[in-house]
């Protein structure tokens, strides 16, 4: 049985339509419940003393004064928590050679970045805990800090972790074809040095956790703002020596994640360890400064890359040398080598070429650890690839759209394997480009650009094609030994009143997962979405699953929901057939009614069926299966990842006197397969674009040479804000994945993947007549004026 | 972080506030709109202050004409200044500046007296009152005194306000017929502190120029003013760049700020002629 997605007038046609979000009214009325809203009897708060130095030996800790502060319950050092919590090592078997030292919930012996938790102070209020933390006296002996990426491996640079031997955490070289020969024979070679700035995903709700330990039940309950409740369940169980089944993680409303909340943070594990020691609930809510010096950072890369093309603009070879500095530890359990690895996997992604070499070098630094943040590695790979393609086009005097059309995989070329060995099931680069050209009136914009340039107004058009990795299989983490589920499940049941409850292992972070699930289940069963209640984020309640990351919620969680809803529909019709003495195959469920499929005639409302099944089961045939509950799990198996594709365009103006970039308009055409909820997908794309624009123009974590964080506040760390954002036009091409009935791929990261490259290319398009080029993000007014040589270097 | 105040008292009138200030043993801090002070307290950059809340003293708010001068009470909110018809007519520079100050929520709470007393070198109002040749009105238990804007701003967050004094109002000459007042700034994002900014007032044949975010305090630029009086814009830009003292930070270097000040002065001069920005 399939669903006729091509027929918008089919019964129960909720998939593909914009339906209201079930949680929207609750959230806008202030009725959401975030971790900080949870208050339990005997609750205490923890505040952390954090290292003020990037690298220091902890010679002595005096907690006596702190313990005397009014309200302080207890003070913990690293050694004390290490006694109840085993350390973790963030490596994965399939990332060969990746190394990282054991990490503890609080620093033991040595602090390795400004912000690393050193001492925990527990008190009856956060204020008292902070007052206590102020009174802790830590004797730090400064050690030399490693803060420069490109000299991290030099002989003269101190080794951050002596037992690791050197500062190299991971290195991977991938080579396909004969790269050197292709470059030697090329008509044209372009080369550039790209920089993407260290930045972070600023979540409206900071990291938050509340942990209670009930010794009577031997059960730990953690209310946690997380993307992966089951993963956290495993981690807390493993490191605090609790049976996994005795750890419950509850993830209520979450105020944005963007990848920040899918990692294991030492202060959060410390909070759990303290709860277990004290036998009472302990809350930790990061404040904004703590967010900046402890939330994972990302995107700290320097890349030198070359592209070889023939005289027709066809790509012959690409050679990429990527460096990234990850901080002092690889982050548990996903590791900090994935981002560099993604750069290797994704460069050159849209293009059909043969010779490819890419190397990533991942080095330790005395800075906040980096890890996976929205569109992991993509913005870097897309900027490198699309930047070089534009440079090659300019060198050849070719239109940037034309050079892409000459190189993108043909839309009928699939399945195909890229030179990075990525397997593509079905992409639509050309159809997407054609749609973009229509939406933006490319030729008209080029004419406008030329007319304005004659008046001294410098506007630019930037194009960026991209691929995006979604719906990951165990090839992402599982094969490396991490207990991170690539499979996800959904249980759907019908209650006596005919209403439907769906329990899903994917989570709601504010992006609309529950709306997506409600409409998938509604169509799968045959009721309206408002008859479906969706429950997510409770490891004791929902089927086991991976949660929300790598754009998997709709493609994996949505398919599990559809399969379980279809199974429930089948069960209901079995029962209905017995009641109505009709062949179930001739019955359907539409808008909450059992109907005759052929005529559409209503036969029985679901609430009547529910009444009989639950209260008058005696009237049904003995032995009739009457389980109005079904569970299905889904995992992708044909491809390691479901790649999506798309193309973005930016139209902007550069003020060549001030260097200020004004974004005028932005387009994105993307192909995430089946679009389940057009509004939610468009808003995901828009939000993603905005986050990418932040990286392109604003966001940059600054450290000085001693490893001091220089801009740890929202006044100094600039996130993109509404006033500067352009109008965004979103278009779609739909190439459903054949791996699932639903056909959905991910949509959450495509915007972020492509927008920085589009902006970079647009700026360079604007500046090209002036002989200037920028490749170091963010493109601040000052960097643009330096490129223009208006101010000196 | 959680703020740690030493105490709080709400003043009923100016005399009461002065008494509280006098009794605070040097720990007194005037709380008006709280848009800078409370943020600093929440970062624990300021701890143990005895907060003296003057925000309910109605007599300190409002705009009035006094002869040929315009007087603005210290508690007048940014948003009120932005829509006040007297300000629009007699000191349009201040009204225009409001659009550049932060965002609505902050403009609804922040006060002009607070902004002037805080003396952030990147803030708009201090530079505006300098360009407008304004006078600051201070009160203490000993009496009142007036300080010219030229003498008021001393260093980063430092003013001529003495221990035990409260800034109660600012006044300035009313704009003459034909007078032009222009503010130009560049910020990374709408509402951010400016990377550099220029206030330019042309009264008759004379010019006053002040620059902000390019030194430890709002900077008057007498050399640039004289060059503009002489009609030499290039010389004015050159003089300005010698008169300012920009610093480098994570947003921009001193070189960039110096360049930008020159660009903004040219744009401000263009604005005098009523040309588009």
UniProtKB/TrEMBL annotation, chain A:
The keyword Isomerase does not apply. It comes from the Bacteria. SUPFAM superfamilies: CO dehydrogenase molybdoprotein N-domain-like (SSF54665), Molybdenum cofactor-binding domain (SSF56003). Coiled coil: none annotated. InterPro entries: Ald_Oxase/Xan_DH_a/b, Ald_Oxase/Xan_DH_a/b_sf, Ald_Oxase/xanthine_DH-like, AldOxase/xan_DH_MoCoBD1, AldOxase/xan_DH_MoCoBD2, AldOxase/xan_DH_Mopterin-bd_sf. Residues 29-144 form the Aldehyde oxidase/xanthine dehydrogenase a/b hammerhead domain. GO terms for molecular function: iron ion binding; oxidoreductase activity. Keywords: Molybdenum, Oxidoreductase. This is Carbon monoxide dehydrogenase. It comes from Zhengella mangrovi.
Automatic annotation (TrEMBL), chain B:
The keyword Flavoprotein applies. SMART domains: CO_deh_flav_C (SM01092). Residues 1-177 form the FAD-binding PCMH-type domain. It comes from the Bacteria. GO terms for molecular function: FAD binding; oxidoreductase activity. InterPro entries: CO_DH_flav_C, CO_DH_flav_C_dom_sf, Diverse_Substr_Oxidored, FAD-bd_PCMH, FAD-bd_PCMH-like_sf, FAD-bd_PCMH_sub1, FAD-bd_PCMH_sub2, Mopterin_DH_FAD-bd. Keywords: FAD, Flavoprotein, Oxidoreductase. SUPFAM superfamilies: CO dehydrogenase flavoprotein C-terminal domain-like, FAD-binding/transporter-associated domain-like. This is Carbon monoxide dehydrogenase. It comes from Zhengella mangrovi.
């Amino acid at each position: 049985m399939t669903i006729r997605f091509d027929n918008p007038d089919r019964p129960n046609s909720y998939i593909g339509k914009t339906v209201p979000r079930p949680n929207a009214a609750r959230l806008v009325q202030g009725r959401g419940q975030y971790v900080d809203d949870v208050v339990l009897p005997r609750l205490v708060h923890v505040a952390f003393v954090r290292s003020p130095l990037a690298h220091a030996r902890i010679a002595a800790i005096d907690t006596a004064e702190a313990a005397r502060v009014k309200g302080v319950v207890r003070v913990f050092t690293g050694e004390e928590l290490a006694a109840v919590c085993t350390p973790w090592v963030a490596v994965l078997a399939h990332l060969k050679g990746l190394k990282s030292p054991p990490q503890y919930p609080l620093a033991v012996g040595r602090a390795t970045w400004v912000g690393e938790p050193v001492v925990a102070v527990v008190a009856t209020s956060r204020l008292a805990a902070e007052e206590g933390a102020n009174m802790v006296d830590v004797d730090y002996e400064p050690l030399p800090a490693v803060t420069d990426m490109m000299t991290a491996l030099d002989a003269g640079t101190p080794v951050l972790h002596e037992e690791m031997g050197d500062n190299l955490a991971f290195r991977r070289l991938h080579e396909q074809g004969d790269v050197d020969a292709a470059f030697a024979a090329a008509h044209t070679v372009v080369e550039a040095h790209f920089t993407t700035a260290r930045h972070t995903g600023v979540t409206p709700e900071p990291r938050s956790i509340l942990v209670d330990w009930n010794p009577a039940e031997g059960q730990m309950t953690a209310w946690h703002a997380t993307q992966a409740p089951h993963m956290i369940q495993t981690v807390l169980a493993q490191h605090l020596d609790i049976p996994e089944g005795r750890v419950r993680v509850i993830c209520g409303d979450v105020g944005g994640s963007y990848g920040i909340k899918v990692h294991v943070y030492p202060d959060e594990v410390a909070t759990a360890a303290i709860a277990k020691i004290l036998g009472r609930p302990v809350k930790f809510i990061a404040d904004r400064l703590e967010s900046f010096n402890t939330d994972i950072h990302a995107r700290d890369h320097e890349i030198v890359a070359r592209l070889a093309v023939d005289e027709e603009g066809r790509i012959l070879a690409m050679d990429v040398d990527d460096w990234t500095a990850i901080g002092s530890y690889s982050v548990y359990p996903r590791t900090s080598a994935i981002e560099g690895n993604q750069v290797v996997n994704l460069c050159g992604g849209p293009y059909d070429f043969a010779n490819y070499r890419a190397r990533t070098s991942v080095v330790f630094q005395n800075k906040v650890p980096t890890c996976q943040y929205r569109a992991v590695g993509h913005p870097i790979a897309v900027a490198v690839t699309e930047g070089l393609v534009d440079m090659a086009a300019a060198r050849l005097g070719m239109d940037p759209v034309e050079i892409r059309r000459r190189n993108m995989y043909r839309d009928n070329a699939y399945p195909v394997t890229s030179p990075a060995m990525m397997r593509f099931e079905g992409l639509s680069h050309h159809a997407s480009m054609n749609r973009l050209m229509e939406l933006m009136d490319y030729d008209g914009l080029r004419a406008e650009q030329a007319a304005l340039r004659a008046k001294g107004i410098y506007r630019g058009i930037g194009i960026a094609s991209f691929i995006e990795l979604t719906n990951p299989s165990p090839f992402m983490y599982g094969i490396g030994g991490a207990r991170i589920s690539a499979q996800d499940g959904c249980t759907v049941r019908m209650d006596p009143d005919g209403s439907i409850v769906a329990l899903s292992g994917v989570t709601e972070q504010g992006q609309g997962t529950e709306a997506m699930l409600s409409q998938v289940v509604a169509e799968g069963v045959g009721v309206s979405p408002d008859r479906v209640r969706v429950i997510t984020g409770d490891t004791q309640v929902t089927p086991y699953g991976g949660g929300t990351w790598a754009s998997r919620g709709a493609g994996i969680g949505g398919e599990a929901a559809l399969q379980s809803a279809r199974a429930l529909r089948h069960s209901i019709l079995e029962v209905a057939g017995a009641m109505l003495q009709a062949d179930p195959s001739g019955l359907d469920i539409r808008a909450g009614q059992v109907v005759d499929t052929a005529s559409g005639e209503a036969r029985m409302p679901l609430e009547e069926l529910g009444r009989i099944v639950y209260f008058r089961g005696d009237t049904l045939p003995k032995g009739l299966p009457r389980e109005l509950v079904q569970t299905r799990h889904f995992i992708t198996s044909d491809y390691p990842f479901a790649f999506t594709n798309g193309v973005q365009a930016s139209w902007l103006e550069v003020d060549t006197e001030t260097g200020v970039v004004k974004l005028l308009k932005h387009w994105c055409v993307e192909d995430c397969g089946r679009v389940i909820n057009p509004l939610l997908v468009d808003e995901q794309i828009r939000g993603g674009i905005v986050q990418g624009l932040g990286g392109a123009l604003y966001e940059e974590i600054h450290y000085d040479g001693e490893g001091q964080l220089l801009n740890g506040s929202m006044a100094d760390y600039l996130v993109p804000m509404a006033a500067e954002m352009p109008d965004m036009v979103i278009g779609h091409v739909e190439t459903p994945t054949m791996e699932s009935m639903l056909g959905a791929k991910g949509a959450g990261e495509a915007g972020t993947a492509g927008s920085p490259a589009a902006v970079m290319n647009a700026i360079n398009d604007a500046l090209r007549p002036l002989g200037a080029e920028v490749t170091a993000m963010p493109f601040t007014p000052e960097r643009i004026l330096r490129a223009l040589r208006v101010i000196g270097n | 972080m959680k703020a740690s105040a030493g105490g709080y008292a709400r003043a009923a009138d100016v005399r009461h506030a002065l008494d509280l200030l006098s009794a605070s043993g040097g720990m007194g801090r005037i709380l008006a709109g709280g848009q800078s002070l409370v943020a600093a307290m929440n970062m624990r950059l300021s701890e143990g202050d005895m907060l003296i809340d003057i925000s309910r003293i109605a007599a300190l708010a409002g705009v009035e004409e006094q002869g040929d001068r315009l007087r603005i009470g210290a508690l007048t909110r940014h948003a009120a200044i932005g829509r006040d018809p007297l300000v629009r007519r007699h000191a349009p520079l201040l009204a225009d500046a409001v659009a550049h100050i932060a965002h609505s929520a902050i403009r609804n709470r922040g006060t002009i007296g607070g902004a002037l007393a805080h003396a952030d070198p990147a803030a708009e109002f201090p530079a505006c009152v300098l360009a407008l040749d304004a006078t600051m009105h201070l009160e203490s238990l000993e009496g009142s005194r007036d300080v010219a804007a030229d003498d008021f701003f001393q260093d980063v967050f430092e003013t001529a306000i003495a221990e035990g004094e409260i800034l109660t109002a600012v006044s300035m000459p009313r704009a003459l017929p034909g007078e032009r007042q222009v503010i130009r700034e560049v910020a990374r994002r709408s509402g951010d502190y400016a990377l550099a900014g220029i206030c330019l007032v042309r009264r008759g044949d004379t010019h006053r120029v002040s620059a902000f975010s390019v030194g430890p305090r709002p900077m008057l630029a007498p050399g640039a003013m004289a060059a503009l009086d002489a009609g030499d814009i290039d010389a004015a830009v050159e003089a300005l760049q010698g008169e300012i003292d920009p610093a480098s930070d994570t947003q921009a270097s001193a070189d960039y700020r110096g360049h930008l000040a020159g660009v903004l002065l040219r744009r401000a001069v263009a604005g005098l002629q009523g040309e588009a920005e």
